[in-house]
Amino acid sequence: MTGATTARDRRFRLTHLQTIAVVLGLLGVALVGYVAPNVTSDDRTFGFEPPPEPLDVTFPAATAIAVIGIVYLLTAAVSLLERRGTRWTRTALGVSGALFFPLVVIVALALSETRSTNVTQLLVESLSLGTPIALGAMAGLWSERSGVVNIGIEGMMLGSAGVGFMVYAIAGDASSTSWLVASIGVAILTGGAIAALHALMSVTFRVDQIISGVVINLLALGVTGFLRSEVIVPSGVTSGITTSAIGLPLLSEIPILGPQLFTARPIFFAMFAIVFASWWVLFRTPFGLRVRSVGEHPSAAETVGIDVIRTRYLAVIIGGLIAGLGGAWFSMESQGGFQDNMTNGTGFIALAALIFGKWRPWTAFGGAMLFGFTRALGSRLQILGVELGDFEVPSELWQSLPFVVTIVVVAGLIGRAIPPAAVGKPFQRSR
Amino acid sequence: MRRDLGAQLRRSLDLQPLLVPLLAIVLAFVSGAIAILAIGSDPIEAYAALVRGMVGSTDRIAASLGRSTPFIGAALAVAFAFRAGLFNIGAEGQLLVGATAAAWVGTWATVRGLPGVVAVPVLLLAGIVAGGIWGGIPGALKARTGAHEVIVTIMLNAIALLYVRWLVSSQDPVILRDPGATVPRTATIDDAARLPGIVDSQPPLHWGFLVMVALAILVRFVLQRTTFGFEVRTVGTNTDAARYAGMAVGRTILVTMAVSGAFAGLAGAGEISGTAGFLSPGVFVSIGFDSIAIALLARANPLAIVPAAILWGSMLSGAGLMQQEVGLSIDVVRIVQALVLLFVAADVIVRTVFRLRKTRDDALETTDLASGWGGQ
Amino acid sequence: MPVAPDAPVVLEGRGITKTFPGVIANQDVDLTLRAGEIHCLLGENGAGKSTLMNVLYGLYQPDGGEVLVHGEPVRFGSSADAIAHGIGMVHQHFQLIPTFTVAENVALGNETSRRGVLDLDGTRERIRDISSRYGLHVDPDAVVGELSVGVQQRIELVKALYRDAEILILDEPTAVLTPGEVDEFFRVVRGLVDKGKSIIFITHKLREVLAVADRITVLRGGRAVGSADPTTATEQDLANLMVGRDVVFTVDKGPASPGAAVLVIEGLEVTDGRGVTTVTDLDLTVRAGEILGIAGVEGNGQRELVEAVTGMRTASAGTITVLGTDITRANPRTVADLGVGHVPEDRNRHGVVGAFSIADNVVLNQYHKAPFSQRALRREGPTRELARTIVRDFDVRTPGIDAPVQTLSGGNQQKVIVGREMTRDVKLLVVAQPTRGLDVGSIEFIHRRIVELRDRGVAVLLVSAELDEILSLSDRVGVLYRGRLVGEHDRADTTREEIGLLMASGSRAEVAT
To answer: Do C59 and A286 touch (CB under 8 A)?
Structure first.
C-alpha cells in the first residue's frame, strides 16, 4: 500500500479540450463510418404537431446521421487546432452539444419501425418533467450561494407536497379552484418553514449542514407519511383536481410551437419566472450581491457591516419557498394527490443539476432541462420500440439515459465545479 | 506513570460523552410523543408497544439485530468515505449491485457442490467485488476528472435500480429471473451458500451480524493503525497536506470509494445469503439513505456505528408491533429517528434543555463534514 | 511633519479589556489618536494589536473600557456603526471577495441602485475620483482574484475612503509589499494625512515605525507597555520594549564551507495552476553546507520554484537534480525519500494536519517508512519517541504529544514542522517563509537551527519575502523577479539597497547612476 509510488507523467496528459475533441472525433468517425451506412436509408419525419397546420420535416435518416457526424469531426478538428477556448471552438462545441439531442432521436427513429415522431410534444414533455427539477435547483442555488449546503431540497419538496395536499384534503370543498390555489400557497409557506428549520439548525446552532439536510429529508418522509395515514386518508379526499392549463395571450398563438408551449399550467410558467428572477436578483441587485458575498467570504461581508446570519436566513428561506412550489407541482399540478415519498429523489436530481450548472441559474436550469429531456426521451423511445438487431432495447435502458448522460457530461465536459467558497462552513459572528 | 493510568481509567469511565446522545434520544422520544398526542393516541401505550417490539422477547431482540445487520455494513461504507472527505450517497446502489451479484453467484452450478465454508465466502466476495466496482466508478471519476462524487453516486443509484430491475424481471431474454416464479425474482440460492442462522426470527438473526460487527472493528483498526488508514484520514482532513506528504491523493480517493462500495456490497450480499435467499426488485429500498443517517449519528466513528445501527434497525423492527397494537403508522418511528439525529447533531439544544456544560473534548471531536462539499 | 500636541483627539480607547476563553488579549489598554497624525502601534505577533483594532472597529465588543470618537463615548454593535462614525480599517488579511470585481467589492454593503438594479456606475466614478485624488490607481472592473496583493491593498484603502472614513486603521499593511512598494505606500499614507485623515498604523517592523510614525505605542502581552518618540528612539530601544528583553538582531554564524553541489537546476520553466508561466529559464546550484537565499516579492515565482523542487508541481521545461538524481518529474514522495526536507510556505495548508496530534504530524511524510511502520501497520512506539524528541529538542510548548497541532500557537506549529524536516536524514532543506507570523523568540530559534543544519553540511535553499531574514541567514543571495533569478551574489558582495532595487525592478541599473 505504501512505498510504491505512482510514476504519473503529467507532462503528456491531454488537456481538457483535447480530451473532448478526441471523444467527439471518435463519435464522428463512428457515426459517419459505421452508424450511417448501417441504418435504414429510408426517410424519417419530425412532426411539429398539433393541428390545424402540423409541420412535418422529412429527411433520409442515414444522411442526417452522417451530416451530424461530419459536424462532430469538424468540431474535433477545430478544438484540436485551437489551443484555448476561442470563439470558434466555443461555437462549434455549442452546436455539437445542441445537435446531440436530435441525433439521439434520429438514431432511435432509424432503428425503429416507426417513421415519424412528434417533436413538439417531446419538447413540451421535457420542459414539464424538468419543472420540479429546475425549481429544486433554484432552491439549492439560493441556499448554497449564501454558503449553506442544502441536501434537504428533497425533504422540502416532499414536505410541502404533503402538507399542501393535506390542507386541500381537509379544507372541505375539494373541487374548488380557490382552495387549490390556497393549498398551493400553503405548500409554498411549508417549504419556507422547513427551510427556516434548516437555517435554525445550520446557521444558528451551527449543526453540520449535511446532517441538517439529512434530518430534514428524514423528518419530511416521516411527517408526511404520518399525515397521510393519520389525516389525509381519514379525511376521505385522497385525490383532487389539479391546476388547469392557461394559454398566455399572443404567445400561445405563435404558429407551430406556440399553442403547445404557451398553453400550460401555472407552476410550469412560474418556474420560468423564478429562474429568471433568481438570476436577476442574485446577479443584478444589491441584495443578490450581499447574498453572494456572504457565500464567498462571510467575514469580508461582516467587515462592511452586512449581517451574515440574517442574510443567510433570508436566502435559505427564499430557497425553501421555491422548493415549496416545487412540492406543490407534485401533489397539485402533476397529480392530484399525495403518495408516500412521491418526490422520489427529484430533490437529489435537482442538487445534481445545480452542481452540474456550477451554481449558476441558467446553467442549472439547463441541467434540469437536460434531465427533463432525457426523461421524456426515455419514455418516447420506449414507445418507438427501438431494436438493435433482434434485441429489443429494454425500457430500463432508456430510462437510465438521463443518469448515464449526466455522468458522462459531469466527468467529461464539466470536470471540477467550484462551489461558493464558504459553502458548508458555519459562520461565527465576531464578538 | 501511575497517575497517568488513573486519569485514563477515569476518562474511560467518564459517561459524559455518552450522556449527550442518550439525552438526545430521550428528547427525541418526548418530542415524538407530542405528535402522537396531537392525533389523540396515548404515547405511553405506543412507546410501550414499540419497546416490546424492539426488545420484548428473545425473538424480538433477534429480529431487531437481524434488521440492523445490513445497516451496519452500509453505514460503515458511508462513514469510511466520510473519513476521506468523500460523501458517498451511493451506498443504496452499491448494496443493490452487491446483492445482485451474490444472488447470481449463489445460483451457479459450481457453487452447489461446494461446502458452506467455501460457498458463503465466494458469495460474499461476489458482493464485495460488485459493490467495490460500483463504488470505484465515482472514485475513479473524481480522481481523474474531478467529477463530484455526490452527483455520480446519485446517478449510479438510479442506474443500479433500473438495471437490476431489468436483470431480475426481463423475460425476453431471461437473465436472472427465476422462470418458474410468478412474480419477478431470482432463483433461490443454493443452501450451501446460505449464511447460517442464529435465531430463526423474522427477519432472522444470522452470522452476517457478527461479520458486520467484525467489519466495524476491522475498519476501526485500519483507520487507526495502518498506513492506508492514515492516508485516508489525512486526505480527508487536509488534502493539500496529504499531497505535501507524498500521498497519492487520487489513488487514495479511488481506493477509498471502492472499499466503501465493497462494504455496502458486502451488506447486500449478506442479506441475500443470510435472510432472503433470492433477490426481487424493489427490495432493500432506503437502506442506503438510512445508512447515511446512521453514519452521521455515529459521527463516522466505526465502533459507534454498531450501536447506532442497532438502535435504528430495532426501531424499524419494533414499529410493526406498535402499528398492530396501537394502530399508529410506522412513520412515527421515522419522525423520532430524524429527531434523534437532529438532537445528537445539535447538541447545543440538548445541553440547553438539560443544562449541561460543554467539555473540551466535545469541542475537538466535532467533525466538519459539510466543508468537504466543494470537493478538493 | 510633527503634529501639534494639542490637536484634537479623534479616536480614543480607554482601559480596553478583551478576553477570549483562556486568553487575555487586551488588558486595560489606553490609546489616543489625534487629528492628522500617524500613530504607530508596535508589537510582536500575538501582542494583541489586531484585537485592539477590532474593538475600535466594532467587530469585537470589549469586556471592559470604552471607545470614544471625537470625545463622545460610543458603543459599536457592529462594524457598520464604526463605519458610520467615519472609521475605516484595512485588515491584515484582506477582506475582499476574489470572485467579485473591484467596484462590487467597494460597493458591497453600501450599494446604490436604480429601480432595484444594482448601479455600479456611480461607484466606478467615485473609485476613479479617489484613485486620482490619493494616487491609488485601481481598475474598477478588474476581478479582484486576478490582481496582485499590492493592488488588493489599494482596493482596501479605496474601500475605506469610499465610505468617507476620516480615521483609518491599517493592520500590518506592509507585510506583503516590496521595499519599493513600501516607500510608495508611505507616500500614499502621508498624502492621506495631508488631506486631513488620521491613521493608526500597526506593524511589527521597526524600520517602518521610525520612517512613518508621528507617535509610537508599544503593545506586549496585551498591555500597552510604553510609548516612544520616533525622533529620538532607536530600533534597538523599540525592539527591547517590544520583546521585553534585549534582542540580538544578527544571527551568529561562521563562514560557510561549501562542499559538493547538492541541488542543480538548469533551464527551469514552471507554470502555475492557471497555466501562466511563472518561472522562466532559471539556473541555480546549492552546495552542501551553504544557504542560498532567494529574495523577492511574493508572486514572482517563488511558490512554483519551491513546488517544482519538492515534486509538488511538474516543471514544463528544464531539469532538476538532487545529488545527481534527476527529480524533474518525480513526485513528492520520491523527492522526500532522496533526502529533501521541505518547510512549506503555508504551514496550515501544507505543513500540518491541524486536527491530528503532534505524534501523527511528526511522521506526516515518513509514516510509511521504518521504523514508523512495518508491513503497512503503523508502529506507535517509534512515532511517539520521535514526537517526544522533537518536542524536547525544538522547544515545542505543548501539554503533550497527543495534543492536536491546531491547539498550538503558530510558532510552536512551525517548530513541529521544522523539527520534523530537520530530524529526517536530509541532504537538502527547502525552506519557504520559515518565520512568517512568528514571535521574535521563535524566529531566533528557527534561524539558529537553520544555520546549525548548514554547519552540519546540509544544503539549504531559503525562500523568503523578509529581506532581513535573507540578509542575515544567507551565504549567497539571489532575487526572483518575474520568474527569473537575477543578481546572484555572495552575501558579502551585496547590499540591502541593491537587493531592494532588484526586487522592485529586476535590474541594478539605477545603482550605477
So the answer is: no
Interface membership of C276 toward A (CB under 8 Å): no
Q: Do A425 and B371 touch (CB under 8 A)?
A: yes
Inter-chain CB pairs, B–C, below 8 Å: 67
Residue contact C100–A296, C-beta within 8 A: yes
- Residue C276 corresponds to which cell in the numbers above? 501562466
Residue type, B167: L
The whole-chain average pLDDT of chain C stands at 89
Contact A2 C89 (CB under 8 A): no
> Given this model, what pLDDT does residue C511 score?
44
Which pLDDT band, with edges at 50, 70 and 90, does B11 fall under?
A: low
The whole-angstrom separation of Cα B203 and Cα B321 is 14
Collapsing DSSP to helix, strand or coil, B36 comes out as helix
Mean pLDDT for B2-31 is 71
Closest chain A CA to residue B159: A400
Tell me whether strands C325-326 and C476-481 are parallel, antiparallel or unpaired. unpaired
pLDDT computed for residue B363 by the predictor:
37
Contacts of A among chains (3+ CB pairs under 8 A): B, C
The answer to whether the Cβ–Cβ distance between B244 and C354 falls below 8 Å is no
Query: What global pTM score does this model have?
Result: 0.86
Amino acid at C53: M
What pLDDT score does A389 carry? 67
C118-144 mean pLDDT: 91
Q: What is the pLDDT of residue C4?
A: 61
Out of A219, A410, A423, closest to residue B148 by CB: A410
Q: Give C183: exposed, middle or buried? Use CB within 10 Å, 0-12, 13-18, 19+.
A: middle
B positions 112-171 inside 8 Å of A (CB): 141, 144-148, 150-152, 154-159, 162-163, 165-166, 170
d(CA A359, CA A69): 32
Q: What is the pLDDT, as a whole number, of residue C250?
A: 72
Query: Is the Cβ–Cβ distance between A156 and A293 less than 8 Å?
Result: no
C376/B245 Cβ within 8 A: no
Q: Is C371 on the interface with B (CB under 8 A)?
A: no
CA distance C127 to A305: 20
Of all residues in chain B, what percent carry a pLDDT higher than 70? 90
Closest A-chain CA to C334 = A5
Q: Rounded to an integer, what distance in angstroms lies between the CA atom of residue A112 and that of residue A387?
A: 6
CB contact under 8 A, B234 and C312: no
In B, minimum Cα distance to C404 occurs at B364
Q: What is the pLDDT of residues B27-46, one digit of tens each?
A: 999 999 998 898 888 999 99
Interface contact C349-B228, CB threshold 8 A = no
Dihedral of alpha carbons C397, C398, C404, C407, sign:
negative
Question: What integer pLDDT is reported at residue B1 of this predicted model?
Answer: 41
- How many Cα atoms are found within 13 Å in the side-chain-facing hemisphere of B325? 17
Instruction: Calculate the alpha carbon distances from B357 to A255, B20, B354, B362 in Å.
Output: 71, 11, 9, 10
Q: What is the DSSP letter of C346?
A: S
Average pLDDT over chain B, rounded to an integer: 88
The values of phi and psi at residue C215, to 5°, are -145, 155
Residue ranges of chain A whose pLDDT lies below 50: 1-13
First-to-last alpha carbon distance for chain C, in angstroms, is 30
**Chains contacting C (3 or more CB pairs within 8 Å):** A, B
- Give me the total of CB pairs closer than 8 Å, taking one residue from chain A and one from chain C: 94
Distance CA C61, CA C75 (A): 9
Confidence at residue B376, expressed as pLDDT on a 0 to 100 scale: 37
Residue C354 near residue C348 (C-beta atoms within 8 A): yes
Q: What pLDDT, on a 0 to 100 scale, did the predictor assign at position C2? A: 54
User: Measured on CA atoms in the order B126, B128, B134, B136, is the torsion positive or negative?
Assistant: negative
Which A positions 356-375 lie with beta carbon below 8 A of chain C?
none
Q: Is C350 an 8 Å CB contact of chain B?
A: yes
